[in-house]
Design goal:
single chain; Trna Endonuclease, Chain: A, domain 1; 11-stranded mixed beta sheet; 6-stranded mixed beta sheet; 13 helices; 32 strands; 23% helix; 31% strand; binds S-adenosylmethionine
Length: 635
């Protein structure tokens, strides 16, 4: 390796420099976003914007203005933040006022989410059963060597997104704060370091740990330039302080003691103090149902709200590239919490900021969406992803295909072998549609860049039947909308038991795949009845939610599920689906406080009679989406 030209004190890590001693470029991939769902927006507003933009609405075009009046919608983005930020740069370079991030800290642990299952029995106050699932993994190999480069690449993209007056606040704990501070110096410049804020969570109970208990995290605040937003914050004092009054003396241009007419010093009672860099905010306790949603690294709204109040102007744009359970997004909506002297918490609202959030976790996206829906007058937001473009990119970089060209045969073979291995199957050769075998079943794997079609499944079933093989598993990322139950029936008639399984996004997460921590869920389907109780009025009643082969569901879940509706955590209706983005018209979901789920929705009245396509979306307790379209004639 060539000599690195060292001109300043800096941290060096594997992956920072090329062989010739030059700094490695950070990948900046710009991929198109797809809008997969819009929330809290009326179809009329949406239609008006659609006509204005004259484009396909399921591709994000970024033509909206910077205010809600000018059509701005907040953005919940599901995907790897490296690709998401690269893609955001086109529209948002230099536009973000505050970046707050709470990334993995290289703890070496897996973090969980407690998904609750079924209705709680209010009569006897039984708690709902809990299904503990992995929310994300924070493992970086024995020495954690990959962590610095991983974070560095992301921070470089964040700097590009920040406004010149913008701030970044990075949440960390003792595991990586020394490393993170050096990387921040590298990317933002040590001269732009503003504060190391200590979040002291005095209420976290820890046993005898053989050293002082670690009861604080740190927030590292950097600005992009010396001119930055900062609003000092005040808080009530625990004990009122008797303070000497001081006044400005214009002659000496200094502060001096104030005196009354008799020459006595003037005192006053100070009930507030200006907040310094030690923030005494309690840890979120598991029993706190007002806020805690069961996401193990969830941060208190009091903490994140204060960051936003201090470092982002009103109406400014906040970005969180690791939103987890969505705390920063709620805080940007203006949700705030405070405590009285007895420690009792209450919620209030502060001026809203606009927000963009990104997370690659299925659970994060689901939990954050539910939390946002619970916010009174939550502003319209849209859910976006990079869909097949992200998968194509992943396939390209992981299996060696050249960008922009169809994947080479070798790369395709490697892709199939990789998925088969994760599924616990062996490759088979010489077949047209069949790629592998798992036990007595043959396996077909869908492409990364297209939905599995009905005709593709038909061909695979026919090949299986010809080979006199009785079981076929089809694995797909996305599916052509259709009647899966009918397909399963049709396959049965040819003597083939058909299982349709979803390839989960975790396949693309190195840490999940390396641990073999990937579960393939069976595609479920739902049955609903569309009722027309009166003229122009429609109601949807869920009738069944079918997970076809329940033996594939872990036993601990099967034990607690008493009825089909227990599998459902959330459901929503788009009353006029236009074959593009799902537009949420009505929604119901379970929360920690409210476990009962209505199975019939509120009535919807159309303005005029006609043919409409109603789309019903269910999110189950495993975090998977199932949608079903119903074509109705409204009279
Ligand atoms: C510490 S948690 C954030 C918790 C959050 N502050 C809250 O209050 O709920 C870190 C989050 O980063 C997400 N994450 C990790 N790597 C990511 C990546 N490359 N792209 C997007 N999200 C990522 C994880 O899924 C996890 O939800």
């Amino acid at each position: 390796m060539a000599k690195i030209n060292i001109t300043k004190t800096e941290l060096v890590w594997p992956g920072k420099y090329n062989e010739d001693g030059t700094k490695k470029e950070v990948p900046r991939v710009s991929l198109p976003f797809q809008v997969i769902e819009t929330v809290n927006e009326s179809r009329a507003t949406r239609q008006a914007q659609k006509e204005k933009s004259l484009g396909l609405f399921d591709v994000y075009e970024g033509k909206e203005g910077d205010t809600f009046e000018a059509g701005w919608r907040n953005k919940l983005i599901w995907g790897d933040n490296l690709l998401v930020m690269g893609s955001l740069l086109e529209k948002f370079a230099g536009k973000i006022d505050l970046i707050y991030i709470d990334p993995p800290f290289a703890t070496g642990d897996d973090f969980s989410f407690n998904a609750e299952v079924g209705d709680s029995d209010t009569e006897i106050r039984k708690e709902p059963s809990v299904l503990e699932v992995k929310a994300y993994r924070d493992t970086w190999g024995e020495s954690g060597d990959r962590y610095p480069n991983w974070l560095y690449q992301r921070l470089v993209l964040m700097r590009g997104l920040l406004k010149d007056t913008g701030n970044i606040c990075v949440h960390c704990d003792w595991h990586a704060n020394a490393t993170i501070r050096h990387i921040l110096n590298d990317v933002f410049g040590a001269q732009h370091f503003q504060n190391e804020i200590v979040w002291w969570y005095y209420n976290k109970m820890q046993g005898n740990v053989g050293r002082f208990a670690s009861n604080h995290d740190t927030l590292l605040w950097y600005s992009k330039t010396p001119i930055r937003t900062f609003h000092a914050q005040r808080e009530e004092r625990d004990v009122v302080k008797r303070q000497q009054k001081r006044v400005w003396d214009p002659t000496t241009k200094s502060l001096k003691q104030a005196k009354d007419a008799d020459g006595n010093l003037v005192y006053y009672d100070e009930t507030e103090r200006t907040i310094d860099d030690v923030w005494r905010i309690p840890y979120l306790m598991p029993a706190d149902k007002t806020e805690n949603v069961g996401f193990s690294t969830q941060k208190p709204i009091e903490l994140v709200g204060r960051v936003i109040d201090a470092l982002c102007p009103e109406g400014g744009l906040v970005f969180d590239a690791f939103f987890g359970s969505g705390t920063s997004l709620l805080a940007a909506e203006g949700v705030r919490a405070s405590r009285d002297v007895a420690g009792k918490k209450s919620f209030y609202r502060a001026p809203a900021r606009r927000w963009i959030g990104c997370d690659f976790g299925r659970w994060g996206v689901h939990v954050a969406r539910k939390r946002l829906l619970g916010v009174e007058e939550c502003k319209p937001f849209e859910v976006l992803n990079l869909g097949r473009y992200e998968r194509q990119y992943w396939q390209g970089v992981t299996f060696g295909a050249t960008k922009g060209k169809p994947p080479a045969e070798q790369a395709l073979y490697e892709y199939l072998a990789f998925i088969l291995k994760l599924y616990g199957a062996q490759p088979v050769i010489g077949m047209a549609q069949l790629h592998g075998r798992k036990g007595k079943a043959l396996v077909h794997i869908g492409a990364v860049d297209a939905p599995v079609t009905i005709s593709e499944i038909d061909l695979a079933v026919a090949e299986c039947a010809k080979l006199k093989q009785g079981e076929l598993h089809v694995l797909g990322w996305e599916w052509e909308m259709g009647l899966y139950d009918l397909m399963v029936e049709a396959a049965k008639k040819q003597g083939v038991k058909l299982l349709l399984l979803i390839i989960p996004r975790e396949v693309m997460e190195q840490q999940a795949a390396a641990k073999g921590d990937v579960r393939f869920f069976e595609l479920a389907y739902l049955q609903a009845e569309i009722k027309q109780p009166k003229k122009l009025t429609v109601k949807v009643a869920l009738k069944d939610f079918v997970v076809p082969n329940t033996e594939l569901i872990p036993e601990e879940v099967r034990k607690v599920v008493k009825k089909w509706s227990d599998y459902i955590d959330y459901w929503a209706v788009d009353w006029d689906f236009q074959n593009d983005t799902f537009m949420q018209g009505w929604v119901a979901y379970r929360t920690r406080k409210e476990r009962t789920l209505p199975l019939t929705c509120d009535a919807h009245t159309y303005e005029k009679a006609g043919n409409y396509r109603i789309l019903v979306k269910v999110i189950d307790i495993f975090g998977n989406d199932t949608t079903q379209a119903f074509d109705v004639e409204v009279k």
